[in-house]
Amino acid sequence: MKNLTLIEKLGFEASDRVVIFHIDDIGFSHASNLASFKCLDLGVASCGSIITPSPWFLEAASICKNNPKYDIGVHLTLTCEYELYRWRALSSVDPKTGLLDSESSLWRTSEEAIENVTVEAAEIEMRSQIQMALYNGIDVTHIDSHMGTVMNPKFLPSYLKLAREFNIVAFLPKLTKEELIAMGRGEHADVYLKMFENLEEKGTPLINQIIIDTLGPHPNKVEYYCKRFAEIKPGLTHFLFHPAKMSPELKAITPDSASWRDLDFGAFTNPHIKECVEKYDLKIIGYKEIRDYIRNQ
Fold first, then answer.
1. For 108-120, how does the pLDDT look when each residue is reduced to its tens digit (9 = 90+)?
2. Mind giving me the DSSP string for the chain?
3. Domain 6-172+207-295, what architecture?
């Protein structure tokens, strides 16, 4: 008997191009909250993930609580990359955990977090971030990783453990060795490949394709994204972007990325983006469908 793919288990054909249009960094600013929920309301963006230690988390949580239709996960983070706009760990201020830098904030880079944060502290902090979302009324559907940090082999077992503990989906792409090398993870490629094999045998949902290199100030971002839509292959694709509404706040927080975040917002609230989805016959889902499927097994 043929083993069904994940999208077939969800009711699609194996040849369908099924896409999760995912918003990253919800809650990191008021500008991102304004943009993210407008993008979700248009209907091409299907879900997103929220940074629970961030300053504007409570606003985002309030919006989600009043609109339970939104498909929201937790953007697990051990980092805060901004120069003057920082957030701290939820679980501890103890220097022994390695969670905090000299400013008592999360580390600015993944490399620093991986080097300094203990495995135990990382797991406690990730659990706290998920619980913070749940305590504030968010029906958490999935977890993923800010700056990719918690998907390092050091923290990955805890990441997957928490997905099982809360019975939610862990974003996890099934990458080839070449893709891992291109992403700078060649050193751990064999570890990842063995892990993908073991997880598939256990029935863990894996993403077939990821499109995450969407950062940057392309002059016409609607046209740029429509070209990226044409590259999507049959199977399940995670397509992420980072919308935020241009404002003095956004420019003060992140002068380097403010313009392209605003371009993301403009692109994914432009009606033409829906026409491009239809043109390439993309089937849109969120993580809620996958979470509900695994919970019903």
1. 999 999 999 999 9
2. -PPPPHHHHTT--TT-EEEEEEEEEETS-HHHHHHHHHHHHHSS--EEEE-TTSTTHHHHHHHHHH-TTS-EEEEE-SB---SS-----SS---GGG--B-TTSSBBSSHHHHHHHS-HHHHHHHHHHHHHHHHHTT--EEEEEEGGGGGGSTTTHHHHHHHHHHHT-EEP-B---HHHHHHTT-GGGHHHHHHHHHHHHHTT---BSEEE----S--SSHHHHHHHHHHTPPSEEEEEEE------HHHHHH-TTTHHHHHHHHHHTTSTHHHHHHHHTTEEEE-HHHHHHHHHT-
3. Alpha-Beta Barrel (3.20)
